[in-house]
Amino acid sequence: MNLAYDVLIIGGGPGGAVSALLLARAGFRVCVFEKSRHPRFHIGESILPRNLPLIQELGLEPELRRLPHLPKYGAEFGLGSDPQTMSFKFSDGLLPGSATFNIERAPFDEMLLNAARAAGAEVLEDTAIKRIDRLEEGAVEIAAEGRTFTGRVLIDASGHGTVVGRHVGSRRAFDDPHLQKVAYFQHFDRVERPAGDATGDPTIIMCREGWFWLIGLSETKTSVGFVTRPSFVRELNISADRLLQWAIARCPVVRHRMRNAVGQSTNQVLSDFSYTCKPFAGPGYFLVGDAGCFLDPIFSTGVTLAMMGAQQAAKHVTALLQNRETPKNARRSYCRFVEGSTGIFWGLIRNYYRHSFRELFMNGRGPLQVHNAVISTLAGNVFPKPVWALRWRLWFYHLCVRVQRYIPLVPRRAECSLLRESPVEIALAHTAVAV
Ligand SMILES: Cc1cc2nc3c(=O)[nH]c(=O)nc-3n(C[C@H](O)[C@H](O)[C@H](O)COP(=O)(O)OP(=O)(O)OC[C@H]3O[C@@H](n4cnc5c(N)ncnc54)[C@H](O)[C@@H]3O)c2cc1C
Q: Does the C-beta of 74 come closer than 6 Å to ligand 1?
């Protein structure tokens, strides 16, 4: 069967759904191909403040409010063996910051995809794209489940599937081994969280080997994860589905927060998730969200970058299909948007794995409102690119991180190493987990 559309979209996550919603509203014939069936589990449950105005702009706030979610006003950061943590509120940012939310991705992603459907996009679930047969300016053809589909533009929003990146051979892992990552995660009940209004503020606990997240999803449920280097895990000889337990048992602060936790003793695993597929647009295609690049989830940027990127891609595809923009200009503007908005996070993430960064960050304040600028960046005020007031302060912050390595600008803090800490067994639910 050969079906003709204006826009073919691979992937029905936030990037694909928002692209489809906007293009269908603009009157195009859009088809989304999703290999799974919503609602489906997805990791990535903490959303940046900048996402809320976008959801409002899309007219989806009432739908969002109807879903179970937890308000998030800031975040808490700590070191693995030091109970004294540092908290901030987005309202302390240099630029106006608002509250946002944590949410389980299954209902959230389903809500977005249903909105696209309601706007007129065709959505084919349980339909994995297996092949790209044609990828040219104005003519694309893809194959799924024995059928081919043709269109004028292809949006790849396949997340880690990186369908186009693999097809054109542009998918590259980062050569810096510190940026290669693997994550172990699970949902638990009865995890201790910040008190009162701060209960939805994610807690990030750092150690030499990586970092933990504790993200409240509802009054009772908390998402807990550990992110580390694959090279570190290879040395351990621990079964991948027990790695989270292993790490929790060796991190005093996380272990304490989880002393009454109830949940499974095994965890889920996501590996090999740091890569880029530049350029983010080429003849016949645009890469949206994780299909373009993924660095590290430390600052909870993924969903917001995917949805903001989707909005831009939809804008340029609309202009392209209405002959208001040349393909070359559409691609150049889109790539500039993605690079401009993500670049500042790449700088922060590279530095985040330096202990001197963590010492400065944990200090909680610095001269020239530098910390306020970092908070505004972490709130997602980076589109289409961060304003100068943020950029020079971030540059100054990175300079301080370098100086701190040799001369203490703020007090030194003890680094927690999971390999040095003595493990303490914790019991989850009715299962005592030996570590
Ligand atoms: C450990 C970890 C923690 C994270 N935490 C956060 C967080 O707290 N906050 C945050 O904002 N982000 C977080 N992220 C990132 C976030 O999950 C992603 O950035 C986000 O889901 C990107 O959305 P997307 O639409 O680009 O891709 P996805 O949400 O991955 O959607 C892609 C879709 O494409 C489908 N697909 C794949 N291949 C095919 C194919 N061949 N054919 C058809 N369909 C296909 C998939 O089934 C999927 O539904 C985290 C990521 C990781 C790895």
A: no
Ligand 1 pocket, 49 CB below 6 A? Answer: no
Query: Which of 105, 158, 211 for a ligand 1 pocket mutation test, highest count of atoms within 8 Å of Cβ?
Result: 158
Q: How far is CA 408 from CA 90, 192, 373, in A?
A: 27, 33, 21
Q: Put residue 168 in one of left, alpha, beta given phi > 0 → left and psi -120 to 50 → alpha.
A: alpha
Q: Are 277 and 291 in contact (CB under 8 A)?
A: yes
Name the pairing type of β-strands 82-89 and 74-79: antiparallel
Domains of the chain: 2-68+104-174+275-340 (3.50.50.60), 72-99+181-271+354-435 (3.30.9.100)
Would you say 246 and 184 are in contact if contact means Cβ atoms under 8 Å apart? no
Phi, psi (degrees; rounded to nearest 5) at 41: -65, 145
Distance, CA of 290 to CA of 298 (rounded, Å): 15
| Cβ–ligand 1 contact at 161 (below 6 Å) | yes
**pTM for this one?**
0.95
Q: Which amino acid is at 161?
A: G
What's the CA gap between 209 and 277, in Å, rounded? Answer: 27
Query: Would you state the structure tokens that stand for residue 178, as one six-digit string?
Result: 């510190």
Q: Which residue has the tokens 């949206």?
A: 288
Look at residue 429 in the predicted model and tell me its pLDDT. Answer: 61
CA–CA distance, 228 with 179 (Å, rounded to integer): 9
pLDDT classification of 3: cutoffs 50, 70, 90 = low
Separation of CA 379 from chain center: 13
> Across all residues in the chain, what is the average pLDDT?
93
Rounded Cα distance, 389 and 410, in Å: 23
Phi-psi region of 126 (alpha: psi -120 to 50; beta: other; left: phi over 0): left
Residue 70 pLDDT = 96
Q: Given this model, what pLDDT does residue 431 score?
A: 46
Q: Please tell me the distance from the alpha carbon of residue 152 to that of residue 380, in angstroms, as a whole number.
A: 32
* Structure tokens, 403: 């100086």
DSSP string of 76-116, one letter each residue = EEEETTEEEEEEEEGGGSSS----EEEE-HHHHHHHHHHHH
Q: Is the separation of the CB atoms in 32 and 16 below 8 Å?
A: yes
